[in-house]
Design brief:
324 residues; alpha/beta; Helicase, Ruva Protein, domain 3; 5-stranded parallel β-sheet; 13 helices; globular
């Protein structure tokens, strides 16, 4: 069993190396994308245009034997543009269901916050239940199904804020920053054709069963009771921050939900597994705290007015919640 897990770990190491060769200067984003795959969850990515968000999902789809689909979200999008619709067949007077783009394995929902509420509702059903409902009939989506949604932090005009229930369905909320100057130099040389070597080639795509086997290996990673207690205390601290300092009182209007606890557990195990450990340490929990909780912790108006972000709040919790 250990030999099988080692083989799976090598496969994901090769996958990470391939992704980092395709997407220069974003190793943290690549790692969180792989954690989302291993933890079987959806990803909300926030970053300026031109940071290879679309390229990332396409590279991942090339490396794993699956299909991908990009959907550009716009204000005039309809739910049927995602789910598909019943098409009338005049030759026999019947209706036939024509599948929409959600019937792929990896979905890139570009600028998700530009779509209206009914479209968000249709996507929420797909994310939460792995199914779509059209004309009173329910259609199952593939077992390997993942949504990577993007938001542009620059333009807010004409956008629809995502409802809290939908935000909670995202396993991770990742923020991508600009690459450093060395990575940007490599990007420039690659575009000019001056970069050394050839374009990365992953070889034969990984079968989907490798992903499912890796998920089983991640689920088997051991979490000792003291680490589990630390994880639970971290989530509880988002709901009752005043227990860790009078200055934290009044910063949070809503803490993380139990779904956040489950997400933290799964992502901490995936983080440990990626580091070749069969057990979780507190540092694994801390490493994934921000992407798991930043969209699940709602700051009060007063906190926002003072410039305190959810990331700042999580940093305070890491410093104050005792380990063990």
């Amino acid at each position: 069993m250990a030999h099988e897990s080692a083989g799976l770990a090598r496969a994901f190491d090769d996958l990470a190396a391939y992704m980092n060769a395709c997407i220069l200067g974003q190793p943290a984003f690549v790692e969180l994308l792989l954690i989302a795959v291993l933890a079987d969850g959806h990803l909300l990515v926030e970053g300026a245009p031109g940071l290879a968000k679309t390229k990332a999902i396409k590279a991942l789809a090339r490396a794993i034997d699956l299909s991908d689909q990009r959907i550009q979200f716009t204000p005039d999008l309809l739910p049927s543009d995602l789910t598909g619709t019943d098409i009338y067949r005049p030759e026999d007077g019947t209706f036939r269901f024509q599948k929409g783009p959600l019937f792929h394995n990896f979905i890139l929902a570009d600028e998700i916050n530009r779509a209206p509420a009914k479209v968000q509702s249709a996507l929420l059903e797909a994310m939460a239940e792995r199914q779509v409902t059209v004309g009173g009939k329910t259609y199952r989506l593939d077992d390997l199904f993942m949504v990577m949604a993007t938001q542009n932090p620059i333009e807010q005009e004409g956008t629809y804020p995502l409802p809290e229930a939908q935000l909670d369905r995202f396993l991770l909320h990742v923020r991508i920053d600009f690459p450093d100057i060395a990575a940007e130099r490599e990007i420039l040389r690659l575009v000019r054709g001056e970069a050394r070597g050839v374009a990365p080639d992953f070889g034969p795509p990984l079968p989907q069963e490798v992903v499912f086997a890796a998920r089983r290996a991640v689920a088997a990673v051991h979490m000792a009771e003291p680490v589990e207690e630390y994880l639970l205390q971290m989530v509880q601290a988002t709901r009752h921050p005043e227990l860790y300092g009078a200055d934290l009182e009044g910063l949070v209007s809503f803490g993380a939900s139990p779904r956040g606890t489950i997400a933290l557990d799964r992502c901490a195990r995936a983080h440990a597994w990626r580091r070749k450990r069969d057990y979780v340490v507190p540092e694994d929990v801390q490493a994934v705290l921000k992407p798991v909780l930043r969209h699940r912790v709602l700051m009060t108006f007063e906190a926002e007015a003072d410039g305190v972000t959810s990331d700042d709040f999580i940093d305070l919790l890491i410093a104050r919640v005792p380990v063990g």
